[in-house]
Amino acid sequence: MEKLVIQGGEPLAGTIHVHGSKNAALPILAAAVMVEGVHVIDNVPNLLDIQVMLQILREIGCKAEFSNGKIVLDTTHVHSSHIPEHLMSQMRSSIFLMGPLVSRFGHVQIYQPGGCAIGERKIDLHLRGLEALGGELKSSTDTIICQGNQLKGAEIVLDLPSVGATENIMMAAVRAEGVTVIHNAAREPEIQDLQNFLNQMGARIIGAGTSTITIQGVRQLSPCHYHVIPDRIVAGTVMIAAAATRGNVTLEGVNSQHLTSLTHVLRRAGVQVDVKGDIINVCSSRRPMAVDRIVTSPYPAFPTDLQAQIMTLLALSDGMSTIRETIFEGRFKHVDELCRMGADIRVDLNTAFIRGVRRLYGAAVEATDLRAGAALVIAGLSAKGTTVVEQIHHIDRGYENIEEMFGLLGANITRRTQTAKIVNN
Ligand SMILES: CC(=O)N[C@H]1[C@@H](OP(=O)(O)OP(=O)(O)OC[C@H]2O[C@@H](n3ccc(=O)[nH]c3=O)[C@H](O)[C@@H]2O)O[C@H](CO)[C@@H](O)[C@@H]1O
Ligand SMILES: C=C(OP(=O)(O)O)C(=O)O
């Protein structure tokens, strides 16, 4: 079992280039199976979830080579539209193969997807979307089979703007007959990236980034070369870490527009954030101010994927902050771990009340999910003494070599397989 050992207290300093987006790359890789041929997809981060996606794609017949952020994916010999259960259960994003495989083969057999334990995470909107396009569903407790030899365009209203359901329906609709309109679609930048990828393959989609997406079905698609957008959540994590350690960090190759809600919150906390095109500088030399009424909501509001990390910063602030989590009902598991490091946080239903403390102290803590893990790393970087973060496979799902990333900014952080000794503070 690997763990991260962090000797905290050093302000982060330096310049960093942020890797490509996990949440954009995963649906794009799934979408590539819709057409036979060789795709080249670059700026792909080397993460556990990407490796699982490649394992699934190889299992159904793709050839994939991955080096230096570039994936050459040959989808010519895909021979199966059945995703084995042991692979489906490894991550939530395995569900993205449903739309593309129905589109190519008229049939798919999948199981309930896995993923971080942050809430119930139903897939009813994905399934209802496919049904609306004419897919015939048979599902038992675990197995889901969808048959749909010629899907037909439809007007679909999502009950809530689900990112994954919007993407799955978009992919299924690309080759459906006629026009599909998705109302109340999610507006995340990763959906725009998927639209751009699909259009580069020959699809005719407009509206991604707004809440109405229109897909005019096409017959022909062809493989393409595509560059994935930068990861706004990794960028946000580094920005918060810079603020929490009272450092000075410049991020390059980011899309600052994707980070507007975080920038706003950091500025409210008194952190200096300077934006020049795709370069962001974050600089802070004093204790952050408390920020109340942060509410996680669909894009462009504050992202749930940065909720745990911003909580770490606010745990160190001067005053009382509040965060309301409205997306996932089980996404406060990091609270207990932060409290073990000296934070003073109370949770009431979906709201966390954070009374800032002057200092966090190193401790042995456990990453309960991906972003909870990132929050604990930030806590460790800013704490006095040594922090050991366990269960870091969660962190490896979304951060490429997190110890190297923060190490380049001067952090004292190492990955170890042995039990580390905790120094008394
Ligand atoms: C790979 C990827 O892109 N993951 C992101 C995606 O996850 P994901 O696509 O799973 O998130 P959704 O937007 O679908 O989920 C939002 C809410 O809708 C609910 N829901 C969703 C689908 C459904 O069929 N039924 C249903 O009830 C979920 O339980 C959740 O409460 O968006 C989330 C919200 O920004 C992010 O935290 C994840 O990092
Ligand atoms: C929840 C996340 O991812 P996923 O949807 O892949 O579980 C995340 O990236 O924070």
From TrEMBL:
Q: Where does phosphoenolpyruvate bind?
A: K22, N23
**Where is it mainly found?**
cytoplasm
2-(S-cysteinyl)pyruvic acid O-phosphothioketal: residues carrying this PTM: C116
Localization of this protein: Cytoplasm
Q: Where does UDP-N-acetyl-alpha-D-glucosamine bind?
A: R92, D305, I327
CDD domains registered for this protein in UniProt: UdpNAET
What catalytic activity does the UniProt entry give for this protein? phosphoenolpyruvate + UDP-N-acetyl-alpha-D-glucosamine = UDP-N-acetyl-3-O-(1-carboxyvinyl)-alpha-D-glucosamine + phosphate
Kindly state which keywords UniProt assigns to this record, in alphabetical order. Cell cycle, Cell division, Cell shape, Cell wall biogenesis/degradation, Cytoplasm, Peptidoglycan synthesis, Pyruvate, Transferase
Regions crossing the membrane: none
Residues at the catalytic site? C116
EC number per UniProt: 2.5.1.7
Q: Per the similarity annotation, which family is this?
A: Belongs to the EPSP synthase family. MurA subfamily.
Q: What protein does this entry describe?
A: UDP-N-acetylglucosamine 1-carboxyvinyltransferase
The organism named in the record is Marinicrinis lubricantis
Q: Which gene encodes it?
A: murA
